[in-house]
Design brief:
The chain has 3 domains: 2-56, no CATH class; 62-170, Rossmann fold, CATH 3.40.50; 172-219. The protein contains 8 helices and 9 strands. The chain has helices spanning 11-18, 22-32, 45-56, 71-77, 80-84, 115-121, 133-145, 172-212; strands at residues 8-9, 43-44, 62-67, 87-94, 103-104, 107-111, 126-129, 150-153, 166-169. Strand 7 (126-129), helix 7 and strand 8 form a beta-alpha-beta unit. It starts with 7 loop residues before the first strand and ends in a 7-residue tail after the last helix.
């Protein structure tokens, strides 16, 4: 909306863009946002964006630590969208002596043994774990003890945390299953359509034969 240089937006316009009913949009906004709609004009776009960013916690910059700078960790450090979204990967950690002390994408790689101390000193609240699944639980425990409250776990294995710590398990097999399900359903629909056309062709052939033998409308 903002990049379209719109100053206001109505709930009806948002309904067309999102598929969410305009009364639901107005109700949710009144419950969770301070932005108020103006009759006949709608909501001020800048005010609405500011409120939504505050609700999502993206109206501030977040310092993040990354544990594990292998292939997955390296691709995360190279992802500029993370920085653009307001998440500053301040430190990376690894146990590989060849990587400790190096600078990757302008980010210093520290020895993982100092993870807990540095995360605590820097008041880090969000961490990305990109180590192997057999290392993940120990790393997560260090992060929790350091005061981290949100963890993106990319180890491929599940980890245990206290209730006050949120963990998002990024399991690639889950998304691959979604893709395989989508492809299977698409092919199934194509087969159903093909069968329908085959049935229609069979019926037309039968009608043609009946016409040829005077079976329809004949005396």
């Amino acid at each position: 909306m903002e990049h379209q240089h719109k100053e206001t937006v109505t709930s009806e316009e948002m309904e067309r863009a999102t598929g969410i009913l305009s009364p639901t949009i107005r109700k949710d906004f009144s419950l969770h946002l301070s932005a108020e709609g103006i009759r006949g004009k709608g909501y001020m776009v800048k005010e609405l964006i500011k409120d939504i960013e505050g609700l999502l916690g993206i109206d501030q910059k977040w310092d993040v630590v990354l544990v594990g700078v292998g292939k997955i960790g390296g691709s995360i450090l190279a992802n500029k969208k993370i920085q653009q979204a307001g998440y500053n990967i301040k430190y990376a950690f690894d146990s590989n002596p060849a990587k400790i002390g190096s600078i990757i994408q302008s980010i210093p790689v520290q020895n993982v043994r100092y993870l807990k101390r540095i995360a605590q000193q820097e008041a880090i609240r969000i961490a990305i774990v990109a180590v192997t699944h057999d290392q993940a639980q120990r790393i997560v425990e260090d992060l929790v003890e350091a005061g981290v409250e949100g963890i993106l776990n990319m180890s491929g294995g599940q980890v245990r945390t206290p209730e006050h710590v949120m963990v998002i398990e990024l399991d690639l097999s889950f998304y691959l299953t979604e893709l395989s399900h989508f492809i299977t359903q698409m092919h199934s629909k194509e087969e159903d359509v093909a069968e329908t056309f085959d049935d229609m062709e069979d019926e037309l052939d039968m009608l043609d034969e009946e016409f040829e033998h005077g079976g329809i409308g004949g005396s």
